[in-house]
Amino acid sequence: MSDYSIRALDASTWDAFARLAEKHKGGGFGCWCTWFHTREGRPEGEMGRPWKERLVREGNAHAALVFDDDTAVAWAQYGSPAELPRIHHRKEYDATGGDEPPDYRITCIFVDRDYRRKGVAGVALRGALELIAHAGGGVVEGYPQDTHGKKISATFLYNTTRSLYEQTGFAYDRPKGKNHCVMRRTVSAAEKTHRSS
After folding, report:
1. Which residues neighbour 138 within 8 Å (Cβ) at sequence distance 6 or greater?
2. What is the pLDDT of residues 154-197, one digit of tens each?
3. What is the pLDDT of residues 1-34, one digit of tens each?
4. Virtual torsion, Cα 44, 48, 49, 51, nearest 10 deg
5. What is the three-state SS of 1-58?
6. What is the rounded distance in angstroms from the CA atom of residue 51 to the CA atom of residue 47?
7. SS3 per residue for the chain
């Protein structure tokens, strides 16, 4: 496997993110990874790339970008529930949850088609946890597909699989919708002396 590096999505990495998203017509469903974001403050008619770029440049969108040399090949979007309030099956999620809301949600993991089935999704997920640790840590939730061992098209695996989350230290919390579930993990704050650039 190549040596991948993790960089935060921000103004300095926007162009690399945009190239990856454009290669795939705006990401998996063409939304530029904005579906989960709040609509509050969005200028009327501004959607897709312009809205995502505004969120990134204003510091209101977070993701771990996986780089192969200088090329972004994957991302894992994360953020607070206030930043990412929209999740699928929200009514069921609210009705069945009894715990405090998480500090962070991981809502979307996307991998370049040329890098799929090479473990890059796991690199992205671990990268998000690393950035969350550097931001102070906390309770993290993800909402992967519970495939029950069946093969599913990568198009529908917008947040990967339960097994990948389990391999990354998450615990199963409850079902959500027909084929998804809630996974939770507590991430400790990273020590300042070990912070990577």
Report:
1. 102, 103, 104, 132, 186, 187
2. 555 578 889 999 999 999 999 998 888 999 999 999 865 433 43
3. 468 999 999 999 999 999 999 999 887 677 898 9
4. 40
5. CCCEEEEECCCCCHHHHHHHHHHCCCCCCCCCCCCCCCCCCCCCCCCHHHHHHHHHHC
6. 5
7. CCCEEEEECCCCCHHHHHHHHHHCCCCCCCCCCCCCCCCCCCCCCCCHHHHHHHHHHCCCCEEEEEEECCEEEEEEEEECCCCCCCCCCHHHHHHHCCCCCCCEEEEEEEECHHHCCCCHHHHHHHHHHHHHHHCCCEEEEECCECCCCCCCCHHHCCCCEHHHHHHCCCEEEEEECCCEEEEEEEECCCCHHHCCC
Amino acid at 38: T
